[in-house]
Amino acid sequence: MDLEQMDLKQLRDLRGQVDRAIANYEDRRKREARAAAEDAARQHGFSLSDLTGDKPARGQRKGSAAEVKYANPDDASQTWSGRGRRPRWVLDMLEGGKSLEDLAV
After folding, report:
1. Which of 2, 6, 34, 62 could form a disulfide bond with 10, CB atoms 3.0-4.6 angstroms apart?
2. Contact 56/66 with Cβ under 8 angstroms?
3. Which range (19-33, 37-51, 61-75, 89-103) has the least confidence?
4. Does residue 59 come out as left (phi exceeding 0), alpha (psi in the -120 to 50 range) or beta?
5. How far, in Å, CA of 45 to CA of 102, rounded?
6. Which residue has the higher pLDDT, 63 or 18?
7. DSSP letter string, 14-81
8. Higher-confidence residue: 104 or 64?
9. How far apart are CA 73 and CA 79, in angstroms?
10. Residues 31, 14: Cα–Cα separation, whole Å
11. Hey, how many other C-beta atoms are within 10 angstroms of the C-beta on 17?
């Protein structure tokens, strides 16, 4: 539909859709950039916060995810903090002869 033929409500609805699409795009790009930076830091034996000097604000840490200590060498998206139940991929690796030290990040 041509913009000139839209009424005010349709135009505002369209603007809202565009604003949400832009925000979603920016959020997605930030997540991708952060993941790439975390991967690069991890490859050098650091966490991203080690390199940036960022420390969580007092009380901010509560409820946040624990730092990753182990990663699946076959699929870097599978990680584990070492807390709670061992994920299936960890159990499979241990049964396959790997040790936790082999999976350490």
Report:
1. 6
2. no
3. 61-75
4. left
5. 14
6. 18
7. HHHHHHHHHHHHHHHHHHHHHHHHHHHHHHTT--HHHHH---PPTTTSTTPPPPP-EEETTEEEEEE-
8. 104
9. 10
10. 26
11. 10
pLDDT tens digits, 12-37:
999 999 999 999 999 999 999 999 99
Measured between alpha carbons, how far is 88 from 96 in angstroms, rounded to an integer? 12
Of 92, 99, 64, 63, whose CA–CA distance to 78 is shortest? 92
Residue carrying structure tokens 């082999």? 102
**52: closest CA among 71, 70, 33, 66?**
33
Spatial distance between the Cα atoms of 104 and 68, rounded to a whole number of angstroms:
9
Q: Which residue has the tokens 């795009």?
A: 25
**Biggest distance spanned by C-alpha atoms of the chain:** 68
Q: Which has the minimum average pLDDT: 55-59, 68-72, 85-89? A: 55-59
CA distance 55 to 68: 16
